[in-house]
Amino acid sequence: MKFEGRDVISIRDFSKEEILHILDVAEKMMPIAKGEKKSSLLNGYIMASLFFEPSTRTRLSFEAAMKRLGGGVIGFSQPGTTSMQKGESLADTIRTAESYCDVIVMRHPQEGSARMAAKFARVPVINGGDGAGHHPTQCLLDLFTIRMGKGKIEGNVVALLGDLKYGRTVHSLAYALALFGVDMIFISPKELQMPKEVVEECREMGVNIEIKNDIEDLSSVDVLYVTRIQKERFPDPEEYKKVAGSYRIDKETLKKAKEDMIIMHPLPRVDEISPEIDETKNAVYFKQTFNGVPVRMALLALVLGAIE
Amino acid sequence: MKELKVQPIKNGTVIDHITPGNALKVLKILGITEKYADSVISIAMNVVGKRGVKDIVKIENREIDPKEVNKIALIAPNATINIIRNYEVVEKYKVSIPDEIVGIVRCANPNCISNSREPIETKFIVKSRNPLRIKCYYCEREVEDISSQIV
């Protein structure tokens, strides 16, 4: 297992063993991520944070991760402030940025942009989301959260709920969960069902997949992963209201579920989870957000070769 | 003796065993009508051969190069190329689909980085040869109608 110098573009670039190793390292990072322990592991290293698209959690947690480990951060969060505005290609922007840093983290609105950046950069590139493509660090922190909340990943039944058709994170999460042999339930309105090829791939990997349109019965679910149903997917706002309303998670929903079921959400959320859930022990979505820090710390330390 | 529907040529290239109906596409992909304006080109379509129905293209006085041959493989995977010199077949090879297809097909995803003004050639990974399925190296989207995406 060698991580030094590696790019992190898609969760598919990693084996199950490698994923587990990243999660193990992330666990060791917890006290540093919380600020309870100080670290100078990445002292002298610079991370370039290139965000061509808005982001709250991904960018802030990457920057926090780097700084918690004693490293420095350069970058931008609006492409409007760069030479891309003058028509510079992404390739040239990457070649410029890499000469100032040891690792690049980027988010870009076009699919495949991270893969291309990795081709031009000699330093490792970590994909913070490429359009409707991949978001591997989100997937890793989701797995980390499941393992923390349930003690292990395998053996749980995970329900993915919401926009399963367009949701960038759910496709790679479904693949990763299948890699761990996790049975899944895909719950969504008919218009937003999980693409067939994702379902088929999971089944080929040997896991049970159930497809549902409602949240009436959650009795077998250990992990409920909720995603946002986006308004713009519906031509009729009334239709959106109806659909979104029928997937809202509240205290009534919890009555139909296992007592220790955990509820996750990649955030931002709008109305899919009622605020009354926030204080329950089932809600782990704010922990999940925090978990972005130790997971990204682990990745930075690994690809920079500061730990093995 | 069986009558030959297509006359032999003295020098040039014979592309045989083209998937029936695809001869004209082969010509289009190779850009032959413009590039080889000085060559005599004969086409036979739906010819019954030993291995079933096929199309045949004969290009006189031109030997086509391997990179062009790979382009044909995408729409006529069973085609054979015969290089003819002085009525003799001096070279014969089957077109073969490479593991990676570079610079020949355009990605169908308009939001793919390979469709932007970036200094890269398009690149596709061959997922399966029969039926032919290819996936963009960059955005990982599969191309559904390959022949319409050939550059």
Percentage of residues in strands of chain B: 35-45%
Q: What is the mean predicted local confidence, pLDDT of chain A?
A: 94
Low-confidence segments of chain B: none
Poorly predicted runs of chain A: none
| Helical coverage of chain B, percent range | 10-25%
The neighbouring-strand order within the major sheet of chain A is 7-6-5-8-9
Elements of chain B, N to C (H/E):
EHHEEHEEEEE
Q: What gross morphology of chain A would you assign?
A: globular
| DSSP helix fraction of chain A | 25-40%
Shape of chain B: elongated
SSE topology:
The complex is a heterodimer of chains A (308) and B (151).
Chain A: H1 16-33, E1 46-51, H2 57-68, E2 72-76, H3 90-98, E3 103-108, H4 113-120, E4 125-130, H5 136-150, E5 157-161, H6 168-179, E6 183-187, H7 196-204, E7 209-212, E8 223-226, H8 237-246, H9 251-255, E9 262-264, H10 285-303
Helix pairs in contact in A: 1-5, 1-10, 2-10, 3-4, 5-6, 5-10, 6-7
Chain B: E1 12-18, H1 23-30, H2 32-35, E2 41-49, E3 52-60, H3 66-73, E4 80-85, E5 88-94, E6 100-102, E7 123-129, E8 132-136
Antiparallel strand pairs in B: 1-3, 1-4, 2-3, 4-5, 6-7, 7-8
Task: Give a short overview.
Chain A is α/β, with parallel strands linked by helices. Helix content of chain A is 38%, strand content 14%.
Account of the protein in words:
The complex is a heterodimer of chains A (308) and B (151). In chain A, strand 6, helix 7 (196-204) and strand 7 form a beta-alpha-beta unit. The longest helix of chain A has 19 residues, at 285-303. Helix content of chain A is 38%, strand content 14%. By secondary structure, chain A is of the alpha/beta class. Chain A has a five-stranded parallel beta sheet with strand order 7-6-5-8-9. Chain A has two domains: 11-134 and 290-303, Rossmann fold, CATH 3.40.50.1370; 136-288, Aspartate/ornithine carbamoyltransferase (Rossmann fold). Chain A has helices at 16-33, 57-68, 90-98, 113-120, 136-150, 168-179, 196-204, 237-246, 251-255, 285-303, and strands at 46-51, 72-76, 103-108, 125-130, 157-161, 183-187, 209-212, 223-226, 262-264. Chain A contains ten helices and nine strands. The model of chain A has no long low-confidence stretch (mean pLDDT 94). By secondary structure, chain B is mainly beta. Helices cover 13% and strands 35% of the residues of chain B. Chain B has three helices and eight strands. In chain B, the strands form two sheets. Chain B has a five-stranded antiparallel beta sheet, covered by helices on one side. In chain B, strands 6-7-8 form a three-stranded antiparallel beta sheet, with no helix packed on it. In chain B, strand 2 (41-49) and strand 3 (52-60) form a beta hairpin. The chains are: A alpha/beta (308), B mainly beta (151). The interface between A and B is medium-sized, with 17 and 17 residues.
